[in-house]
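Before the break, one more example. Copy the sequence into your notebook; we will annotate it together after we see the structure.
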Amino acid sequence: MADGLRILVADDETLERNALEFQISSLFPDSVCVKAANGREAVEAFSRESFDIALLDIQMPGMDGLEAAGRIREISPRTLVVFLTAWSRFDFAQQAVRLGAFDYLVKPADRATLKSLIEKCSERLSSSASAGVGECADLQQQILFLRDEICRGEGERAFSRLESIFEPGSGFSDAELSAAFKSLRYEVCGHVPFLPDTPDTGQSRPSVMEKYRIFASDALSAVAEDRADKYRRVISLATSYVDGNFGQPLTGEKVAERFNMHPAYFTRLFREYNGKTFVEYLTERRMEEARRLLSEGELVKRTAAACGFSDTDYFSKVFKKAFGKSPAEFASNPSNP
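Here is what the structure looks like once it is written out:
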């Protein structure tokens, strides 16, 4: 079923690529297997001839498997990319899928696993060929290209691709383009987390294109920020989250978890970027709000609850330490803090 395939194997370890070539040739005698020692050689091979499957080692000198996969997809969108890795982890499987890989293979691969994988690739290629190259498949490939350009910070190329995707002769319907936005956001957010929500601009073609443009601009800005300082954006977002939720029972651990950071590391970075500890910052924001509410005539108990304090006595103690008088004393004469 899988005979007649053209397969490229790229691995910088001679024994590994020779072993894969031997197994493929013995399992599928009618297939052609070409070897490459690194990602650059793999891309050069694709520029000369076509392949159905590319088995790419993740870690290779010069050009790694991830970069090579992006280049190969541009040259040959129909090629199925399989990443080779020495790590057998569920999180890697998720990353491989986000990067547009058809599957991944843990080295050293046994014959049964390799056979099953190539047969699965053959079935996918056969089903794609029988269905023809439909508009939806083409659009999904364009989405993957667009994702790569955004995540690499290639703004000019990303916006140029958007123009081509939305031009009247592209063959993509308004409904397809609208539905594909969710896929693009999911793909990009796998690499660039904590992007802002994109406003709904409407369902017309120009409106949907504007939605893509807004999202691409936000993502490209985030990529540029993260390259300049990989922590400033996330700490800024965490700080804004505290500003908007200080009335909740917040802790440094909860905020760190929300932003996928280790609590101790988050605490250190928060202090480094804000000039004060998390607790100091949170308390300061709560006291500012408490002073405002009391000045406007709010009751002490309700003020405490609004500022995240379940214990009114403790709230009073913190308030007095901050302002030198109790909340009741302040409320009776707010003009003289």
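Residues 13 and 37 are 7 Å apart (CA to CA). The chain has a mean pLDDT of 87. Try to locate both features in your own notes.
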